[in-house]
Amino acid sequence: MRNIYKCRVCRAYTEEPIHCGTPAQLLLEADRRVRLSKLLSYILRHDPSSVGISLDKEGWVPIEVLVRAIRDRRRRSNYSWLTSEHIVAVALLDPKGRFELRGGAIRARYGHSRGVRVNIRYPVDKAVRVLYHGTEKRYLKSILSEGIKPMRRLYVHLSATVSDACTVGRRHGPEPVVLVVDAECVRLHRDVLKASPRVYLTEFVEPECIKNVLSCGEASSEPP
To answer: Please, which contacts does 142-148 make with residues 24 or more away whose CB atoms are closer than 8 Å?
Structure first.
């Protein structure tokens, strides 16, 4: 990830050091941005109690409450610099749309663990034809036999592009692979939900809906 700046002219958050023809103010260095993004994902998706907060039934928490909680509970990690503006900037510029802002509150759009019971209403998608799921080669045999399960999450997560799926697969191990999923086949059984422009959700993917397997080394372009 790149540094986040704030434009001195239009006040927009940006990754560009020059904005509106003027040097922008550095708001958040890249390393702090990555660290904060991972922490927000962990708290809002998996364990809000780790900083002593609770989410409402739709997954929202006031940003000011979250800032105070992080600063109080993460003193050893030195988050004394954290402000609401940092959280807003990270949320707005997140490349995968992981976070959503509304009325001074924030929530994770997707990725919640089963233990974090939230009720988020996602739009049903009826247009996308092909989706991708990143995993590790050692899991292929069971997935091709039993289908793609949500495991410890509320939904199966599917990517809009091969490159995003490869990124996910690399988190699972040294031999990432991408499963090519027929979205129309999935719709014969259940809804496909759109969580963000790059992430789709469904409750389960049947084995017959997995149409191909690509290694990330050979997946240099999107299949038709």
So the answer is: 143/179, 143/207, 143/210, 144/207, 144/210, 144/213, 145/207, 146/207, 147/204, 147/205, 147/206, 147/207, 147/209, 147/210, 148/179, 148/181, 148/204, 148/205, 148/210
Question: What is the extent of the structural domain holding 48?
Answer: 4-108
Split into its structural domains, the chain has a count of: 2
Do the domain assignments include residue 60? yes
* pLDDT tier at 218, thresholds 50, 70, 90: low
pTM: 0.89
140 and 207 fall within a common domain: yes
Question: DSSP letter string over 63-111?
Answer: HHHHHHHHHHHTGGGT-TT--HHHHHHHHHT-TT--EEEETTEEEESS-
Centre a 10 Å sphere on the Cβ of residue 150 and count the other Cβ atoms it contains.
Answer: 15
